[in-house]
Design brief:
The protein is mostly helical. The protein has a domain of about 35 residues. Helix content is about 65%, strand content about 0%. The longest helix is centred in the middle third of the chain and has 39 residues.
Length: about 80
């Protein structure tokens, strides 16, 4: 039924090795970081309707008015 790496004994051994490597204090942080990374990756794949970065930068520059630099004075 279970073949390869999905055997229950292999999974238990893998969990034990991960617990030894990371420790009980750092394991929740590692899981949280992994989940956040996967969530960001999933969100980046879902935003295909947004313009690419150069177009977005041009749109941002057009929307932002340019103010004259008052720190330099002409003598």
């Amino acid at each position: 039924m279970f073949t390869g790496i999905l055997q229950p004994t292999h999974l238990i051994l893998l969990m034990a090795v991960v617990l030894i490597l990371f420790g009980p204090k750092r394991l929740p942080d590692a899981g949280r970081a992994l989940g956040q990374g996967l969530r960001e990756f999933k969100n980046s794949l879902g935003h295909e309707g947004e313009p690419p970065l150069p177009d977005a930068a041009i749109a941002q520059q057009a929307a932002t008015p340019v103010e004259p630099d008052q720190s330099t004075s002409v003598q």
